[in-house]
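Quick one:
INPUT:
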C-alpha cells in the first residue's frame, strides 16, 4: 500500500505544481494585458487632451477674429457717420 500511496501523493504533488504553474502563467498574462490596457487608455487620454486643447485654441482664435471684425465694423460705422455728417454739412 505504501507504494500506491507514494504514487498517489506524487500524482497529487505533480498536479498541484502544474496547477500552480498554470495559475502563475495566467496571472502573468493578466498582468501583461492590464499593463497594455492601461498604456492604451493613457494614450487615448493624451490624444483626447490634445484634441481638446486644439479645439479650445481654435475657438479662442475664432472669437478673437470675430471680436476684431466687430471692432472694424464699429470703426467703419463711426467713419461712415463722420463722412455722412461732413457730406450733409457740405451740401
Amino acid at each position: 500500500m505504501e507504494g500506491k500511496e507514494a504514487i498517489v501523493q506524487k500524482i497529487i504533488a505533480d498536479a498541484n505544481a502544474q496547477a500552480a504553474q498554470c495559475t502563475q502563467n495566467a496571472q502573468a498574462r493578466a498582468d501583461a494585458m492590464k499593463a497594455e490596457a492601461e498604456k492604451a487608455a493613457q494614450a487615448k487620454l493624451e490624444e483626447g487632451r490634445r484634441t481638446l486643447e486644439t479645439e479650445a485654441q481654435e475657438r479662442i482664435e475664432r472669437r478673437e477674429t470675430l471680436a476684431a471684425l466687430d471692432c472694424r465694423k464699429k470703426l467703419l460705422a463711426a467713419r461712415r457717420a463722420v463722412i455722412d455728417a461732413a457730406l450733409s454739412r457740405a451740401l
